[in-house]
Amino acid sequence: MADGSVTLVPDGRSERVVAACAGALARSAEVRFVREATDGTVDDDAFAAYLAIEERFVRTATRVTGYLTWAAPDWAESAAHARTVGALVGEQLGWFRATRVRWPGGADHLADAVARSEVLASHVLRLTTEHGAPAAVTAMFAAETLYAGWCGRAAAQPVERFTDLEAWIALHTAPPFAAGVRALAAAVDAIPEAIDDDTVIGWFRDTLRAEDAFHDSVYADPTRT
Q1: Residues 181 and 148 sit within 8 Å (Cβ to Cβ)
Q2: What is the pTM of this model?
Q3: SS3 string of the chain?
């Protein structure tokens, strides 16, 4: 798992979806912010904006994961989602509140970035509203699979990064995060067979596209990729 990959159930739904979306995952791992975070060249304004949009998205992730806790078909899955909610409103929210004071950024730039970043929250909430738990868990699995991959690969590279960026990457390579991704994978594996793979793959790919727009939102000129 040095590259951030998470072991999936052989020929389970999650493994099939990730395999089908390998190209999309690779493209999403090459957007400007991910490249610059990986090689340590992201500038102060972009990182400040990124912290602002990520902290805001924690609210959406908490809402969706709270719904998944309620909608889960058994105690084990409910407990897994509940642990994720605990991590989001505990460790992650605490980390943002401690870190963002060091990266205030420009108020106008942050406000613009937050407005542009809403594409991801809108996408995830729309999937959840229109298609329920199967789409919600697929969207979260897509996002967390992307992060497990790029943060794992970044952590394995001997690159000098500023402390807060290094800490953010480490947060997404730690055992609790990997356990959360595995729990999402198990939930995707349990999606009823009445929902075909093509549908789940579509939800996954569409979420990656929304992630791309989300990451691009930290730049005043997102066309400079």
Answers
A1: yes
A2: 0.93
A3: CCCCCCCCCCCCHHHHHHHHCHHHHHHHCCCHHHHHHHHCCCCHHHHHHHHHHHHHHHHHHHHHHHHHHHHCCCHHHHHHHHHHHHHHHHHHHHHHHHHHHHCCCCHHHHHHHHHHHHHHHHHHHHHHHHHCHHHHHHHHHHHHHHHHHHHHHHHCCCCCCCHHHHHHHHHCCCHHHHHHHHHHHHHHHCCCCCCCHHHHHHHHHHHHHHHHHHHHCCCCCCCCC
Is-contact 124 60, C-beta < 8 A? yes
Exposed, middle or buried by CB within 10 Å (0-12, 13-18, 19+), for 158?
exposed
**Torsional sign, CA 175, 35, 22, 51:** positive
Q: What is the pLDDT of residues 84-138, one digit of tens each?
A: 999 999 989 999 999 999 999 999 999 999 999 999 999 999 999 999 999 999 9
Q: Which residue in 158, 148, 152 sits closest to 181, CA to CA?
A: 148
Radius of gyration of the chain (CA): 17
In whole angstroms, how far apart are CA 8 and each of 31, 102, 106? 25, 38, 42
Both structure tokens of 121: 């929250």
**CA–CA separation, 1 vs 173, rounded Å?**
9
Phi, psi of 62 (to 5 degrees): -65, -45
